[in-house]
Amino acid sequence: MKLRTAIVGPGNIGIDLMLKIARSEHLELVIMAGIVPDSHGLKLAEERGIKTTIEGIHGILQEANIDIVFDATGARAHQMHAPLLKAAGIFAVDLTPAAVGPYCVPAVELNLGGGVDNVNMVTCGGQATVPIVAAINQVVPVEYAEIVATISSKSAGPGTRQNIDEFTETTRSALIKVGGAKEGKAIIILNPAEPPVMMRNTIYCKCDTRNIDKIKEAINAMVTKVKKYVPGYHLKIEPYADGERVVAMVEVEGAGDYLPKYSGNLDIITSAAIAVAERYAQNKLKGVNS
């Protein structure tokens, strides 16, 4: 048995989600929604025999027995979608920086208990860096965490560009609320280099660096956890102590399901969203949550 899912937002993220759901043992995509009739994503869905609608969220709400909706639109749109999905009793996986529901970083916190009906997947930069900050915080308190997410300009679609301000604020907040840092800052760089660069994320954490060996162990263990659902996630630079801070760099190579492998920023957030939906589906099918 599979849970019935829907995607609202047929852009790059929505298309990548569609391809990943097709491989899922617990999820079935029954409808993809957009608002532009000639959307490339809707055409691809139709070619795969998936029902489509140009009525956006309202088209999904007219479909019977939807269990999960992946929202791949934008922060403002999700703020309107969230109460509608809640009223319909549909679990929402929010891939925008809206942060209506609790932050969810699978390797650190899944946030599926206590009747949660909407989870926020933070941002691509948050999914890549929050686990490293959390790993360091397991060993020593992180006084301040600063991350710099660098992605290829070619892999930043309209949604990413329109939500840059929300990206930085949501990522900063997640470094604190999920990563455990007392203070945080997030920076995103769209690199126009040719050939396109892989997604790279540099993490700086102000903390007691005397236990650097234990910190390295914790970071490596966390990388292993992330790789279970994002195989292309790996350390680009081994963590090291630089005075009062620990520095690490992670690189994310995408699976290449839809966009090229340099688009790790796309792959990490869609992979994390699928991991959450899979867990929700397993729990629901077992009767753990409703």
TrEMBL record:
Catalytic residues as annotated in Swiss-Prot or TrEMBL: C124
EC number: 1.2.1.10
InterPro entries, per database record: Acetaldehyde_dehydrogenase, Acetylaldehyde_DH_C, NAD(P)-bd_dom_sf, Semialdehyde_DH_NAD-bd
Keyword NAD listed: yes
Stored CDD domains: ALDH_C
Superkingdom per UniProt: Bacteria
Enzyme class (EC, first level): oxidoreductase
Keywords, in A-Z order: Aromatic hydrocarbons catabolism, NAD, Oxidoreductase
Domain Semialdehyde dehydrogenase NAD-binding span(s) in chain numbering: 4-116
One example GO MF annotation: acetaldehyde dehydrogenase (acetylating) activity
Any Pfam family the entry gives: AcetDehyd-dimer
Catalytic activity: acetaldehyde + NAD(+) + CoA = acetyl-CoA + NADH + H(+)
Residue ranges crossing the lipid bilayer per the database entry: none
Entry binding sites for NAD(+): S155, A156, G157, P158, G159, T160, R161, Q162, N163, N265
SMART domains: Semialdhyde_dh
Protein family: Belongs to the acetaldehyde dehydrogenase family.
Name used for this protein in its record: Acetaldehyde dehydrogenase
Organism ancestry: Bacteria, Bacillati, Bacillota, Negativicutes, Selenomonadales
Gene (name only): bphJ_2
